[in-house]
Amino acid sequence: METSGTMDVRTVCLGMLTDGAASGYDLKKHFESTFAHFFAAGYGSIYPALSSLCEQGMVNCECIPQDGKPDRKVYHITAEGRTFLLKALENPTPCHKVRSEFLATMCFAHLMPDAQIEKVLDSRLEDCAYYTKMISEVEASCMQDWPPGKRFVAGFGKAMIEAMKTYVEENRHLLTEESASKSATG
Amino acid sequence: METSGTMDVRTVCLGMLTDGAASGYDLKKHFESTFAHFFAAGYGSIYPALSSLCEQGMVNCECIPQDGKPDRKVYHITAEGRTFLLKALENPTPCHKVRSEFLATMCFAHLMPDAQIEKVLDSRLEDCAYYTKMISEVEASCMQDWPPGKRFVAGFGKAMIEAMKTYVEENRHLLTEESASKSATG
DNA sequence: ATTTTATATATCGAACTGATACTATGCATC
DNA sequence: GATGCATAGTATCAGTTCGATATATAAAAT
Fold it and tell me: Least CA distance to A120: which residue of chain B?
């Protein structure tokens, strides 16, 4: 039974709750904004995570009845939860993984028509723009409340996205026939 | 029944087989070297993927008996497989996801002792060095055989890792008390 | 009037991860 | 001469996560 060392969805939820009590819905919003560029999670992960944390006494659940709507379940971290979190943070080698269908696709660019390649690259740049904007917006709205770690993480995201954008812009010509014929004729 | 559009393990295996017939074991080596920095996959994904591709006629399996050892199963892509792959490559918006326990940990750096933070950052830099070396080595050994797409992807990996390294080195001081006290006293 | 957006919880199949199991040879180390 | 490790090879499985979907209500927009 491995109970420490992994920063899984459960542990990240626990961490988020150190900033104050919140519902699953609230946590989802963090996963969609601040955490979106490096740790996405959906309801299918968040709700079971909160249930499991509750069972194990890491959090307490406060059910707030609402008329018509289902109860709002607000979770509070417990002392046990804090201890567990600190233990999880002790892992000296947390991973950083990339799963890129984009790069997998580009590996087979020689099987694709140029127009298709261009579309894929354009969509990647759009994605970069989206994340850059999103990070800047969350920074603008809550930077002052953030501990240094979150600032570091936001800056990290912006730096990586900027690097991606630059690389794609500067090297996309390598992928198309256009450049192949140019280098052949020129 | 969604049969196209996703670059999952099955489709990537199929793509790898366009470079020539191979066994599951052979494919694993590609996942561990060339693809390691952006699309990891283990036997638990590869073998079921090949079985499923075989059932659907995307690949043919050639069983080569070996004395003592289990049969070596070499997979060849079929015409149907090629068609399927081209269809999968048509997705104009393939994703690029990051899953970082490292960044999740750094979000809670204010709950960690400085020495622990330093260890995490050092291990990240080691990881950067490992991947940079690995990509350079595979580039050195098989760059000449590669289509432009794979060169682009290798360069992409190196650029991103370099950006990560630079960012960590230049901003790690933001995470420790040391800098906090320095800015308070200085 | 109807669609969209927001609040809010929850489930489920499909996919994937990481570890492990099994067989066999060869090489080094103790 | 035995133990351990690397390489070659196939395969499974529990646990985790992903993406989509279902349920319910209400305000706001079209």
Answer: B92
Residue B123 tokens read as: 């291990």
Residue A97: phi and psi, rounded to 5, are -110, 145
C-alpha closest to that of B153 among B5, B4, B6, B7: B7
CATH of B9-88, one of 3.30.470.20, 1.10.10.10, 2.40.50.100, 1.10.10.60: 1.10.10.10
For chain A, say whether B90 makes contact (Cβ under 8 Å): yes
Interface of B with A in 130-149 (CB under 8 A): 147-149
CA angle A154, A155, A159 (to 5 degrees): 120
Selection from A159, A136, A113, A89 nearest residue B101 by Cα: A89
Asked if the Cβ of residue B73 lies within 7 A of any atom of strand D, the reply is yes
Residue type, B75: Y
CB B153 within 8 A of CB B176: no
Whether B5 shows a pLDDT value over 90: the answer reads no
What Cα–Cα distance (Å) separates residue B156 from each residue in A84, A154, A185, B150? 38, 21, 27, 10
Q: For A43-74, how does the pLDDT look when each residue is reduced to its tens digit (9 = 90+)?
A: 999 999 999 999 899 999 988 876 656 678 89
For B87-125, give the secondary structure using H, E and C: HHCCCCCCCEEEEEHHHHHHCCHHHCCHHHHHHHHHHHH
Geometric angle at alpha carbon A89, from A88 and A95, rounded to 5°: 90
Mean pLDDT of A35-46: 93
Measure A45 CA to C8 C1' (Å): 16
Confidence of residue B2 (pLDDT cuts 50, 70, 90): very low
Give the domain ranges of chain B: 9-88, 101-181
User: Could you tell me if B103 lies within 8 Å of chain A, comparing CB atoms?
Assistant: yes
Is residue A1 pLDDT above 50, yes or no?
A: no
A105 vs B22: CA distance, rounded Å: 20
The tokens for B101 are 């326990």
In tens, the pLDDT along B61-79 reads 998 877 666 678 999 999 9
Nucleic acid strand D within 7 Å of A41 CB: yes
The answer, for B10 touching chain A at a CB cutoff of 8 Å, is no
Q: How many CA atoms lie within 13 A of A179 on its CB side?
A: 12
